[in-house]
Request: fold
Amino acid sequence: MINVAVLGYGTVGSGVYEVLVKNKESIAKRVGDEINVKYVLDLRDFPGDPVQEVLVHDFDTIVNDPEVDIVAEAMGGLEPAYTFAKKTLESGKSYCTSNKELVAKYGPELLELAKSKGKNFLFEASVGGGIPIIRPLNQSLTADELTEITGILNGTTNFILSKMAKEGSSFDAVLKEAQNLGYAERNPAADVEGYDACRKIAILSSLAYGCHVDFEDIYTEGITKITDIDFKYAKKLGLSIKLFGKSKKVDDKCYAMVAPFMIDSDNPLYSVNGVLNGILVKGDVIGDVMFYGAGAGKLPTASAVVADIVDEAKHLHTNIMTIWSNKKLALENLSTLKNKFFVRFDGSVDSKMSEVTKAFGDVKVVTVEGLDNEFAVITEVMTEAEFEAAAAKVNGVKSRIRVEA
Amino acid sequence: MINVAVLGYGTVGSGVYEVLVKNKESIAKRVGDEINVKYVLDLRDFPGDPVQEVLVHDFDTIVNDPEVDIVAEAMGGLEPAYTFAKKTLESGKSYCTSNKELVAKYGPELLELAKSKGKNFLFEASVGGGIPIIRPLNQSLTADELTEITGILNGTTNFILSKMAKEGSSFDAVLKEAQNLGYAERNPAADVEGYDACRKIAILSSLAYGCHVDFEDIYTEGITKITDIDFKYAKKLGLSIKLFGKSKKVDDKCYAMVAPFMIDSDNPLYSVNGVLNGILVKGDVIGDVMFYGAGAGKLPTASAVVADIVDEAKHLHTNIMTIWSNKKLALENLSTLKNKFFVRFDGSVDSKMSEVTKAFGDVKVVTVEGLDNEFAVITEVMTEAEFEAAAAKVNGVKSRIRVEA
Reply:
């Protein structure tokens, strides 16, 4: 019997407990041993819930119990998670977590600590919810030099953008609806400003390129400036607008960003709608592979945490190598990164096009019936710096969105 | 240094050699040791190719060399692959393969043999080419009871169907084009009759449900009866036609089949076009996850073989558990399986509908301009047996395609 403690009995933590009970038999078959939840840690009590029997309020009970082999954390936030993770690993137990803040900030340190103890620190659920992505990056795409990752990594913003695309509603209206449905927080900044996606692309990029990508270095632009008008143009163009966490290696340079992109229907991420996530990985041998599924939610996220528990139970005394060195990967300034751009302008095509062409060169003009005294263009591929320089030369630039070239 | 032998220097085998040379450094970093190709086995010679230096014509040279740790096979076919696999494992080396015939027929036996020797038998490349699917099934989706797998598992037929959909061409014309492009064999039966997809869904189902699904038990219907006329109806309905390998568990019953299905744009497999593959897996906890990428081709397939080599190199003395028992899973007769059906009839709607409704109950009628004296319907959900009984009652049933309900 392998004893597990679950930290936190919120949405994900209660899901982990539920899955370990529900699929006890098939999980035991896969592990080759029974998984027993010996403790659940929460400050609250849950009278009437069977969890009450194993509920404890003090982390020390867990870390000091030599019978506990694996600690699964589903609390979120840096503290006390970081302290708990360190104490767990130091005491010779394995740790797994759905906590992306913890992993983005302390991933390499905790991996190193786990390795030094011959234990494991796993975090499949920290990116893409239930979608297997961390383990495939680590164990499946090992023949490849990975060159690019593009992900729809945040379900809340994808829900909002999908709804805006489908219904033509404004950002504010859809955000309110998402909040009422429980898909968005009362304070939605972590999602809509792109901070959540930023931590996730930092984790994926670190694993893909084998160096530490610091999330604080990543240029991050959310979706709060995307309007229903942008979607009118997108519809006319047959494009969709998605919030991407994106990183790529060009020669020896590495770029990373979070920003909305317009993409066409040839992109496999085009049809990833609603709260779903999709992650497209490019390798020098394998080409493009995509992983798709529920990026959040109680049970899908719990599924990934439990998969980590199973993996740790199968490797109680063997460190599963994870390549994520402490060596920091210096990100390039975006100014040399190339994209097409969708740009909206005040004024009429007739009055403005010579000015626009002079600044931007060849562009594709888009007008939408009913949108008077404005128009948009899609530029050729240019660097961010070239775009900024060109945009500064024309009066009345209303907004711009990058277009996947 | 870990020594590897590659069996077969055809398309995939030469890709494996190329990748091991090209990405030598990054692969060594992941393994923690250098991978050296000590032998390549082929009956032919390749004068001028650097492979000539390590080329051997006799398998015994490889199996009798105690320095060889891992044998990677990319020859295809049951023999001599089966003999080579057995001898390799018996001699205490690990074996990996892209050979779906071998895996579908001898998978459980070779896994058992590998386990008894503390070595590994891996076969990521046997399904879905480069797409990570075997390892995720085995190591990532471990929290779930898997209930359903639906895959576009054959690139050739998906290329043909995608082209027919896009261009309105006939099956024969597109098949000829695919043959000229090298996407289809001169004798295309293995692809177009569904035999290839059949072996692949047998392998995936065996791993997902933990029992042996015998490919010979699987009802298999190819795409040779799909016509340009079917696509005219599909277009009118906004549906696409895909060849699915499909299995599902309903209560304690397991169904498996290979057949063309009509699906709508809500299905994530809808936009998997051309030679690409997509595999949708449903679990009781995780919901739907999809894996997507190049299902064939020299380098993608080589990427998966090399990933197996890396995994075996990291587990030289540890068997990685794979749940695929010898216990045969008895498949249900399809007669109780439920689908909607698309059915084409001779004659006019006016003259025939009362007869059709009497036999099939409520249906949705579809007519296409320019198609005279025929029409089609989509039925409600019914069992295969109910469908057969109904179809026998109406004269002039021209064809039928299952519709994903």
Remarks:
- The radius of gyration of chain A is 23 Å.
